């Protein structure tokens, strides 16, 4: 058994969805599990709808109508005379979304919990449309809302998986459901049944959670590039596809900005040693990149370069840090106490400076905490102001 995942970039419009259906029709094993993201750009639109409603900007209503029209048009283009039933299902979902946004508008309140609920519609729209379209073309399948199986904590917008419960639910569900499954990526729920999401780009993670729980032979991530390249092809023209890469290498590249695969995706696959293949839905004949445990290719130690656009670098330095024990522990301890996550750390071999990276929104807070912690060293000029 294989799990396939198609990202928003592979289902941006009718032509692209037709292309995906063609890929699915070519699969020999007819019982496939396919995870889909929202149609391209839809999650961003849903987030902005939430914020517009929060700001009591009535523009959200016209954008919402346009978004519905866009989905309904795609249904018509894909299904011609058989569109009505699917359109009704999607319009019902839009009614629900309209009510939620109206609530945000009235209450002037948009919590992360509500935002997750709003974002979850994107994957429901795309998967319902694709599932019903496949049925119209005699490809039998179930539409599966993955939140029924994937259980998380309540860290809304970036929830952590409870693998114990989730794995059991997945195994149980697939024991009794033998048809092909069209699965919503990205969305999960907490133990109270409230919708959570797995972080932006999290549909890749959904595929790997399912694949690992079911011990599948392979997880295929279908996207808009020829695999993992040596750099982001949108930024570096000469970037080329890496035929094979290890889980660890892929993890490093993705944590540092290679958006082609959502970082946590690698872990469940790595644990079960399940191969991940990244493939191009626009050019399915290309071999893509295999992510595996070991590669025999030692010709090139550096596999790729990735980058993050928004980051703050803080440098703590001073002559009084050289040879003194406990500075790093105090520095990172004070930040850990306030839940400030450190993305990268470097220390000069002379111990004269420690440099680290945090998210920009946490930078000022981090700076103030450090100045407070080291106020005596700063007065004594052991650490530079
Ligand atoms: P999807 O909608 O399929 O999930 P994403 O936009 O999330 O697609 O990820 C694919 C994009 O990742 C590519 O279009 C590419 O611009 C970007 N990317 C960044 N770094 C890399 C890399 N090293 N290799 C391949 N793609 C990369
Ligand atoms: N639709 C979600 C997002 O845009 C999840 C995904 O694309 O994987 O972040
Ligand atoms: Mg993605």
Key words describing this protein structure:
3-stranded mixed sheet; binds adenosine-5'-diphosphate; globular; binds aspartic acid; 2 domains; 12 helices; 14 strands; binds magnesium ion; alpha/beta; Carbamate kinase; 43% helix
Q: Average pLDDT, to the nearest integer?
A: 95
Gross geometry: globular
DSSP summary: helix tally: 12
Query: Roughly how much helix do the residues carry, as a percent range?
Result: 40-55%
> Could you name the CATH topology of the largest domain?
Carbamate kinase
Provide a compact summary of the structure:
The chain contains twelve helices and 14 strands.
Helices and strands in order:
Elements: E1 2-6, H1 14-25, E2 33-36, H2 42-54, H3 59-79, H4 84-107, H5 112-136, E3 141-144, E4 151-152, H6 163-176, E5 180-184, E6 187-190, E7 195-197, H7 203-213, E8 218-223, E9 244-246, H8 247-255, H9 266-272, E10 275-280, E11 289-292, E12 312-317, H10 327-337, E13 344-347, E14 353-358, H11 360-373, H12 375-379
Helix pairs in contact: 2-3, 2-4, 2-5, 3-4, 3-5, 4-5, 7-9, 8-9, 10-11
Bound molecules: adenosine-5'-diphosphate, aspartic acid (ASP) and magnesium ion.
Adenosine-5'-diphosphate binds at residues 7-10, 37, 201, 223-225, 228-229, 231-234, 253, 258-260, 304, 306.
């Amino acid at each position: 058994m294989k799990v396939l995942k198609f990202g928003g970039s592979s289902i941006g419009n009718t032509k692209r969805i037709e292309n995906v259906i063609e890929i699915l029709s070519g699969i020999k094993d007819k019982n496939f599990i396919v995870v889909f993201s929202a149609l391209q750009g839809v999650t961003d639109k849903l987030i902005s709808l939430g914020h517009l409603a929060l700001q009591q900007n009535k523009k959200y209503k016209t954008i919402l109508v346009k978004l519905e029209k866009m989905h309904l048009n795609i249904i018509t283009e894909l299904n011609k005379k058989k569109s009505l039933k699917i359109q009704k299902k999607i319009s019902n979902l839009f009614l629900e979304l309209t009510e939620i946004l109206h609530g945000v508008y009235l209450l002037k309140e948009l919590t992360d919990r509500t935002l997750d609920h709003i974002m979850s519609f994107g994957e429901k729209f795309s998967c319902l449309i694709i599932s019903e379209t496949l049925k119209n073309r005699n490809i039998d399948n179930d539409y599966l809302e993955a939140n029924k199986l994937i259980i998380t904590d309540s860290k809304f917008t970036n929830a952590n998986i409870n693998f114990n419960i989730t794995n059991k639910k997945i195994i149980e569900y697939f024991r009794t459901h033998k048809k092909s499954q069209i699965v919503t990526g990205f969305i999960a729920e907490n133990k109270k049944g409230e919708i959570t999401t797995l972080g932006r780009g999290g549909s890749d993670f959904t595929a790997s959670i399912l694949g690992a729980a079911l011990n599948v032979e392979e997880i295929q991530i279908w996207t808009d590039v020829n695999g993992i390249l040596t750099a982001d092809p949108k930024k570096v023209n000469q970037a080329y596809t890496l035929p094979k890469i290890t889980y660890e290498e892929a993890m490093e590249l993705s944590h540092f900005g290679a958006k082609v695969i959502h970082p946590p995706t690698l872990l469940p696959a790595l644990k079960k040693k399940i191969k991940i293949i990244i493939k191009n839905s626009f050019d399915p004949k290309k071999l893509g990149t295999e992510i595996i445990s070991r590669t025999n290719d030692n010709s090139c130690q550096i596999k790729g370069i990735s980058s993050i656009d928004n980051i703050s670098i803080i440098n703590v330095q001073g002559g009084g840090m050289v040879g003194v024990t406990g500075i790093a522990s105090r520095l990172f301890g004070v930040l850990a106490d306030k839940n400030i996550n450190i993305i990268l750390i470097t220390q000069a071999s002379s111990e004269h400076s420690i440099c680290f990276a945090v998210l920009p929104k946490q930078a000022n807070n981090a700076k103030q905490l450090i100045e407070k912690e080291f106020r005596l060293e700063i007065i004594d000029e052991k650490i530079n102001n």
